Amino acid sequence: MKTSLDCVPCFFRMALQEARLARPNENALHQDIIMTWSKMLPELDLSVPPPVIASHLSALIKKKTGCGDLYKDDKFKANQRVLALLPSLKKKIDAERDAPNGDPLGLALELAIVGNYIDRGIDLDVDWEAELNSLAGGINPQIFFEFRQKAVAGGQVLILGDNTGEIVLDMLLVEELQSMGCHVTYAVRSQPVINDATLEDAQFVGMTRLCDVVESGVDTPGTVVDRCLPDFLQRMQDADLILAKGQGNFESLEGVWPGIYCAFKVKCQRVADDSGLPFGRSAFCLTSVEGVGHRDGPGGVD
């Protein structure tokens, strides 16, 4: 997905947010960062996905402030908070498994999608904990049916992770896929960027004890293919099934690598327009080749 002009205000909001987070109360430095970013942005190639542009901003903030992992404390708190919820959520899935016509995989997927709201790159005030307890249900049934058909025993499933906090909910999905006999590998970012999960986070929450965890090589808030490690690209080629979590992964892979299942919350109008789903919906869709348009529709989550 190419960056659009609609993305520009969001980048400026993020620039000011991160400048203030890195060096509070240093107004002169904040102004310098915004002015420098104002000069840089017109020179950047908007034909790349938005996460690539975001990586230039992250590099600028780090250079100007000396701060690398801006959201370290936030990420720790998010992981802790969702870990505290995990036992009760596991009980919900167990109950779904025991219920007549229950669908524990579908429930685990819906919970994992709600976790995508834990995103510091988007300015949203959402009670994601409340949504965990009141799922609307109804992810696109046709695409979910196809996904389930491909999640076969012995199959290689690659999950492209996204945010901290969200990674804890992804563990529920990993467990369900493993119970179906799938071999699951979970991918994280190679460098801190916004509040995305890294190997350190995967170790903290216990994902590394649950399944194989690998780094993609990227330093962007999305799996930008030309920044991935060669070995990781081979993993993507060899996978029987790829599930990309998060809006950043959708932005990076749509129109670039077809046939990837994407699960995320629609958190900006531009993505709503591209996905065909209203703002705030849970999206479960397939990436397409450039210009074709991927499949989703009325079956999304309310």
Automatic annotation (TrEMBL):
Top-level taxon of origin: Bacteria
Matches recorded under Pfam families: ARMT1-like_dom (PF01937)
Listed Gene3D superfamilies: Uncharacterised protein PF01937, DUF89, domain 2 (1.10.285.20), Uncharacterised protein PF01937, DUF89, domain 3 (3.40.50.10880)
Ranges of residues in domain Damage-control phosphatase ARMT1-like metal-binding: 4-276
InterPro entries (alphabetical): ARMT-1-like_metal-bd_sf, ARMT1-like_metal-bd, PH1575-like
Protein's name according to its UniProt entry: Damage-control phosphatase ARMT1-like metal-binding domain-containing protein
Species assigned in the record: Pseudodesulfovibrio piezophilus (strain DSM 21447 / JCM 15486 / C1TLV30) (Desulfovibrio piezophilus)
